[in-house]
Structure formats: structure tokens, C-alpha cells
Design goal:
The complex is a heterodimer. Chain A is built from twelve helices and nine strands. Chain A is of the alpha+beta class. In chain A, strands 2-3-7-6 form a four-stranded antiparallel β-sheet, with no helix packed on it. In chain A, strands 1-4-5 form a three-stranded mixed β-sheet. In chain A, strands 8-9 form a two-stranded antiparallel ribbon. In chain A, α5 packs across α7, α8 runs parallel beside α10 and α10 runs antiparallel to α11. The longest helix of chain A has 29 residues. The two termini of chain A are 31 Å apart. By secondary structure, chain B is an alpha+beta fold. Chain B has eleven helices and ten strands. In chain B, the strands form three sheets. Chain B has a four-stranded mixed β-sheet, covered by helices on one side. In chain B, strands 2-3-7-6 form a four-stranded antiparallel β-sheet, with no helix packed on it. In chain B, strands 9-10 form a two-stranded antiparallel ribbon. The model of chain B has no long low-confidence stretch (mean pLDDT 97). The chains are: A alpha+beta, B alpha+beta. Chains A and B meet through β8, α9, α10, α11 and α12 of A and β6, β9, α9, α10 and α11 of B.
């Protein structure tokens, strides 16, 4: 037993850390410092910088442009990225549609779709949830009717993150009625510029625009955009879930947030002393740090499993549950740490290049918005209630 | 022991509930919050007409001499309707400062126009370094003839931007954080030397940063005892605490009712999601938090005029802790149980949740009040 990274792994960590430090552009550094929101431009530019280093999609097989890293190197990379605050591009392209295309798509699809994803030229979104199909995703109703060498797709998708920036959508659609619902679902790739595709913004509680409703009205999709076989869409979606790795715990991001919280507590005053000296605050902080250590150590154990060739599987649910609850707890203490300055909401100040200065210190600006947004982490990707069901069934076999 | 409302209190309760149900649907709340001032002057005029602004004030000033229970009834309705009008800042805090610490002539001058809805007040006590400590006052009040000159900064002043008059705590003696040496002043917002930046708060209300540069405060502006205003400030804040407890209770009720309805009607996996035991238990937990919050709101309301300030302070801190914890639980679980819908701006859940989150901070959060109780 051994809790240390190898010398090579430590050297790799330093390599990643210095690359980020040397190459993260000043404007993005500023956005991260101030807790502002990244634009699409920031995400794309940073992706291209990583791509230039050969790190556009490090988890892919080497033959498609992956970096050939071990599970631990992938973990270290995500950890460093999380800690740096750099604009991590959403995983829909590199982390979701690409593995499905690689595993189940045709050679033509791999040639067509993979390189632009790798380069950061094409942006993807995920068309899964529907108004009546949230936790019960298999009940989805968006229909794809085969007509000659096309599908006619009609339905509605919701909670589609960044659909307003997306060029393409990978979509779970129903190609067959009757029988077991899961067996009638197919995995279809849809060009977002197709006639009949309408994207409608959905503003969330921090007044940001990430998610959208998508209306599909008789959208014609070439049959060549079906991945794999009809009726296999659910299997491919489950493959993605099974593919979920240790990074889902988001340990790096949480470490960064805890470090920021400590900085805030050194600046904030309470009773004439910095808040960080308040015993009750220190105790709350210590509790969070214990939870973070436990999360990270569990992540390491699962990483060791991955190294041994045993996939993470349903244990990913534990990481998702504990990771999201901890992320929320950190945002809660952060809101508390800035006192009354958690209340002002100058939306403009959350954007890079804002005209209006924030009210109160810079570090207080994103405390409340981040707290509000983070309520979603126990809901998206399968609610924590569903995740507990998965653990009960698949691990405890109850 | 009696927890029944009197006949008049029942009538008041019905009357406010009717106002909220008929004249203040959520769509109206949204419009008013987005308006330039952040609330409705016409709504405020209705409050005045209905006598609600007069409730806690003495009859000599044109008030109804009502008890804290009446204020609780009104604040609960304000919480149910998530109303954005400046009742807390004008009637409870500003008006409370006059009621509890003003001289007869100060009350005679300021209370009638307040009751008529003609002037608004804001209570400016928090400072950049003070966190939740009421005695941490660095704003200085320097002797200037018979009066004083005020210099300093006040932060996140609720409804400061639309106030006609400000109640400001400032130090006339002692050093930072001394309990002695604090005074309270009633000044015009338009006084020379008052700089103000108004802004929205995350819960749809408004607040302001206020800078005072040598603001003249004549002798008639001193409220209460020179250098001895801390007990008055604490009493006003405890009144504020009781009020936001009631407001939070109203907000929690709406979230509880809305979530219960959602669990009954939302179907997944072929059945209402409320049929799943995990969610049933969660809903029961929400119910229990709501009832405990109600109990503690009644408790602090009934102890608010306790002749022993230590008893009143203890009641207020305990209630604030309860409301903080219940508000967090009910708010967060309402969001969680609504799934994605709990996250969207278009649905009322996120707005009630945000108000509860802000109330948790107002006048000190759970940790602050636990420390305060531990020290009492």
C-alpha cells in the first residue's frame, strides 16, 4: 500500500501545472480571479491552446489523437485544470459523443466528426432530457421516423447545456414504439443548423444562460447520422455512464474553491480579527477539508482500480454524490464568509470587461451566483436520489 | 398558554391574505421587482390606506398601538407574496427606531408622514468591517456646535436608495467595537455629503452603499441617548429579526405547498414521484422544519417586548438560528425536489429560495447567533 504518486507522475503534474501557468491567457486568468463567467470564445481559445500541445482530447485512443495517458495521468491533468480555474471546455464533444462514435460509430463517422472535435472547431450539445422525461429518461418521446434515407425528427429536448453555442447535437430519439422503452431508443447526430431546429434560452437562478429548450419540428436528419444500430441508443448512453471516470468527483475544482475560501477568510474581518481566526469558522473549514481528503482518497482508490483494469462502474455514483454535496457545502460556507456582501447582485460585473464595478470586494462577487448555480450539481447527471438507487441496486444488491 | 389569534388579528390575517391572493400574484411581484424603484408606489399607497403602516405605532402618532403579533401577521403575508415593498425597512427598522428611541417631538414629526405612506426610511448600521456585530461601528460622529458631523461608510442598506430618511449608527465616543459611545441619528437622505449607490440584491429587493462625508446632523436628529444607543439598536434589530422570521415562515409555507403539489402531480416511472418513500420522508422533513419555524416565530414574537433585554436577545438569536436552518432546508429541498424546474428563473421556487437564503444572512446568520446565545 502506498499513498504517493510516482516520481514520473509528480513530474507529469509539474509539467501540466507549468504549461497552464505559462499559457493561460491574461484575460482568462482575470475572469478566473474575479469569479466571472467565461464566454464561448474563452473556452474555444483555451481548447486550441491545449490542442496545440497535443492535449485536445487526452483521454481518446492515441490513434484518434489521444495522449496515451494512464488513468492517473488523466486524473492529474483534470485535477490541475480544476485547480487552475482555466475554462474547462464542456465534455459533450470530447467526453461524450466522441467515445460513442469511437466505440460504436462507422469509420466514416469517425473521420468526419472526430478531427473537428479534437481541434475545438465544432461544439456539441446533448439532447437527452425532455419535459416529461427527467429521471425516467427511458420514457423519452422525441420521435425519429425513417423516411427513405432520412429520419424526420419531432419532439422537445430540455436542459441542453450550451445548445445556443452548439454546432451539433447528439440526441436520444425514439425510433420504435411499443416493447420495452429502452429498446426503441436510437443515438442520432443532428446538425443544429437544420431547418426545424429552434433553440430557446432558459435562464436559471443566477440569471445566467447556460441551458436551453430545443424544439425539433420535422427535422430531416440523414440516416448516415445514426450511430451504430437502431434500438441501441440506450446501450450507448449507459456505456457513457459506465465510462464516467474518477474526474466526476471534481476534486481539483473543489480544492480551488476551498483555497479561495481561505483567502476570503483572511481578508474578511469579524470582531476586529480576520475571519480565518474565528474558532467556529475554523471548525467549519476543517470539516470541509476532512470531507475533501476523504473524497480525494476514495478517488485515488478508484484510480488504482482503473489502473488494474477494473472500471469504476457504479462506484462513480458515490463520487458524484459526495463530490456534489461537498461542492455545495463549500459554496455555502463561502456565502457565509462574505457576510452582507453575498447580497448585492450586479449582473454586469459577472462578465469579463464589465462596465459596472462590483459592490464590495471582488472576491465576494461570485459567492452567491456560484452557490445558486451549484444547487444543480445534485440534480443534473442523474439526481443524487437516483444515484443512491443505483448504488443500492448495483453495489449493495438490495 | 394561548396560540389563538384574536378576532381583530384574524380579520387582519384574512385581509392581508386576500390582498396577496388577489392583487399580488407572482407575475406582479416579478414586474414590481424589475421596475425602476424595485417596488410599487401604488402598492405602498394601498398599504397606507389599509392602515398597515400604522399598526405598531402609538395612537398619539396616528398608529393603532398594535402588538408584535400584528406585525408578524403582516410579515408572514409579505413572505407568502414575496412582496418587494419596503415594509421591513420603513416600518419595522426605521419606524421601530423612532417608536423605541425617538422623543415625542421626533415621533410627532416623522411618524404621521410615514403612516400616510409619504416618507420611506432605511436603517444603516452595517459597515465593511463589522460583519454582524452591531457594536463594530467606525462611522464617526464628531461634535459640530450643538450637533454632529457624520463621516463613514454603511453597506448593504436595505432600500437605502428610495429612502427619504436614514437612521444611521455612528460613534460619538469610545473606540471601535466598544459597546459604549454609539449614537443613532435620523438624517435626510438628501443631506449634503450623503453619497449613495443603489443596486439590486439577489432576492429581487434593493439595497445601497452609503458614504457619509461630513454630513451635518443637528441636535434634533439624535435618537435616544448620546453614546448609549447600542441597546436601542439591538432592540430594533431584534424587531427586525422577529419580522424576517415571520417573512421566512410565509415563504417556507409557499415552498412547502408548491413542492407537495409537485410531488402529487409530477409523474415518472409510471407513478407520481410523491409515491417514492425517499421523497415522502423528505417532504415530511420539510413539514417538520416548517412547524418548528412557526413555533420559533411565535416564540420570538411573544418575547419581543420582554422587559429583560437579555431574554429578548436570547429569543431573537434562537429564532434566527431556527429560521436560518429551516429556511435552508426547506429552500434547498424545494429546489431539489422540483428537479430542473427548481433551477429556472421562470418558476417561483428559485425566487422564494433566494429570499430565504438572504434572510439567513440578514441580521446575522446561524453561526453568529449560536455564538451570541453561547455568550449570553
Amino acid at each position: 500500500m502506498n499513498l504517493n504518486f510516482t516520481a514520473e507522475e509528480e513530474a507529469f503534474r509539474l509539467e501540466v501545472r507549468s504549461f497552464i501557468a505559462d499559457n493561460l491567457p491574461a484575460d482568462m486568468r482575470s475572469v478566473a480571479e474575479k469569479g466571472q463567467r467565461f464566454d464561448k470564445d474563452h473556452f474555444v481559445r483555451w481548447h486550441k491552446i491545449l490542442y496545440g500541445r497535443g492535449w485536445g482530447a487526452p483521454a481518446w485512443p492515441v490513434e484518434y489523437g489521444g495522449a496515451g495517458w494512464t488513468p492517473t495521468q488523466k486524473y492529474i491533468f483534470e485535477d490541475e485544470m480544476g485547480m487552475s480555474g482555466a475554462p474547462a471546455p464542456p465534455t459533450f464533444g470530447t467526453g461524450m459523443v466522441a467515445p460513442v462514435i469511437i466505440a460504436y460509430g462507422s469509420e466514416a463517422q469517425r473521420e468526419r466528426f472526430l478531427p473537428p472535435i479534437l481541434r475545438g472547431d465544432v461544439w456539441w450539445c446533448q439532447g437527452y432530457s425532455e419535459p416529461d422525461s427527467g429521471s425516467d429518461l427511458a420514457s423519452l418521446k422525441t420521435k425519429a421516423v425513417r423516411e427513405g434515407d432520412e429520419y424526420a425528427v419531432t419532439g422537445q429536448k430540455c436542459w441542453t447545456t450550451y445548445a445556443h453555442w452548439a454546432d451539433w447535437m447528439f440526441c436520444l430519439v425514439r425510433t420504435r414504439e411499443g416493447g420495452k422503452p429502452q429498446e426503441g431508443i436510437s443515438f442520432l447526430l443532428i446538425d443544429m443548423t437544420s431547418p426545424g431546429v429552434t433553440v430557446r434560452p432558459v435562464i436559471i437562478n443566477d440569471l445566467s444562460h447556460y441551458v436551453n429548450d430545443i424544439f425539433l419540428e420535422g427535422v430531416r436528419v440523414p440516416a448516415a447520422n445514426l450511430v451504430g444500430e437502431e434500438g441501441m441508443g440506450w446501450t450507448y448512453a449507459k456505456f457513457l455512464l459506465g465510462n464516467e471516470r474518477v474526474g466526476i468527483a471534481r476534486v481539483g475544482q473543489t480544492k480551488r474553491r476551498v483555497a479561495r475560501l481561505k483567502e476570503i477568510a483572511r481578508e474578511e474581518m469579524s470582531g476586529g480579527r480576520p475571519l480565518i481566526e474565528d474558532p467556529l469558522f475554523r471548525r467549519r473549514l476543517a470539516e470541509l477539508e476532512v470531507r475533501l481528503m476523504a473524497l480525494e482518497c476514495t478517488a485515488f482508490r478508484l484510480l488504482a482500480e482503473e489502473h488494474a483494469g477494473r472500471p469504476v462502474g457504479p462506484a462513480a455514483s458515490l463520487l458524484k454524490i459526495k463530490g456534489s454535496e461537498l461542492a455545495q457545502a463549500v459554496t455555502e460556507l463561502t456565502v457565509e464568509s462574505v457576510g452582507y456582501y453575498a447580497l448585492p447582485f450586479v449582473e454586469d460585473a459577472l462578465h469579463f470587461g464589465a462596465d459596472q464595478p462590483p459592490v464590495g470586494p471582488d472576491y465576494a462577487t461570485d459567492a452567491m451566483p456560484h452557490f445558486l448555480y451549484t444547487r444543480a450539481t445534485t440534480i443534473y447527471g442523474g439526481t443524487n436520489e437516483i444515484q443512491r438507487n443505483i448504488l443500492a441496486k448495483a453495489v449493495l444488491e438490495l | 398558554m394561548d396560540f389563538e389569534f384574536s378576532e381583530e388579528q384574524r380579520l387582519l390575517r384574512e385581509s392581508v391574505a386576500q390582498f396577496v391572493a388577489q392583487d399580488y400574484p407572482f407575475s406582479r411581484r416579478r414586474e414590481l421587482a424589475a421596475s425602476e424603484e424595485g417596488f410599487g408606489r401604488d402598492v405602498w399607497a394601498r398599504f397606507a390606506d389599509l392602515g398597515w403602516l400604522a399598526l405598531p405605532f402609538p395612537e398619539e402618532a396616528g398608529g393603532f398601538g398594535a402588538t408584535p403579533v400584528e406585525t408578524m401577521i403582516l410579515m408572514e403575508a409579505i413572505g407568502r407574496g414575496l412582496m418587494v415593498e419596503p415594509f421591513l425597512s420603513t416600518v419595522v427598522l426605521g419606524g421601530g427606531s423612532l417608536r423605541l428611541g425617538g422623543s415625542p417631538s421626533q415621533r410627532a414629526e416623522a411618524l404621521p408622514p410615514l403612516i400616510e405612506g409619504k416618507i420611506l426610511l432605511a436603517f444603516a448600521f452595517a459597515e465593511p468591517q463589522s460583519r454582524f456585530h452591531l457594536a463594530d461601528v467606525e462611522t464617526r460622529a464628531e461634535r459640530n456646535g450643538a450637533g454632529h458631523r457624520l463621516t463613514g461608510r454603511k453597506i448593504v442598506v436595505l432600500h437605502g436608495g428610495t429612502a427619504d430618511k436614514l437612521v444611521v449608527s455612528a460613534r460619538t465616543g469610545g473606540s471601535a467595537r466598544d459597546e459604549a459611545g454609539i449614537s443613532l441619528f435620523l438624517i435626510d437622505r438628501a443631506s449634503p455629503g450623503v453619497e449613495l449607490r443603489a443596486y439590486p440584491t439577489i432576492d429581487g429587493l434593493r439595497a445601497a452603499e452609503i458614504t457619509l462625508e461630513g454630513v451635518e446632523a443637528g441636535p434634533e436628529s439624535l435618537l435616544g441617548e448620546l453614546g448609549g444607543a447600542l441597546p436601542l439598536i439591538e432592540a430594533v434589530v431584534d424587531n427586525g429579526i422577529a419580522a424576517v422570521c415571520a417573512e421566512a415562515l410565509g415563504a417556507m409555507e409557499v415552498l412547502y405547498e408548491t413542492t407537495l403539489e409537485y410531488l402529487r402531480t409530477r409523474r415518472q416511472f409510471g407513478r407520481p414521484i410523491g409515491s417514492f418513500q425517499v421523497l415522502q420522508h423528505r417532504m415530511v422533513d420539510m413539514y417538520m422544519e416548517l412547524e418548528q419555524a412557526r413555533s420559533m416565530t411565535y416564540m420570538v414574537t411573544l418575547r419581543l417586548e420582554d422587559p429583560d433585554p437579555a431574554e429578548r436577545r436570547r429569543a431573537a438569536s434562537a429564532a434566527k438560528v431556527q429560521i436560518g436552518e429551516s429556511g435552508r432546508f426547506v429552500g434547498r429541498q424545494a429546489v431539489q425536489l422540483h428537479g430542473g424546474m427548481g433551477m429556472v428563473d421562470e418558476h417561483l421556487v428559485s425566487h422564494y429560495f433566494k429570499r430565504l437564503t438572504v434572510i439567513d444572512t440578514q441580521f446575522g446568520n446561524v453561526d453568529h447567533h449560536l455564538e451570541r446565545m453561547a455568550a449570553l
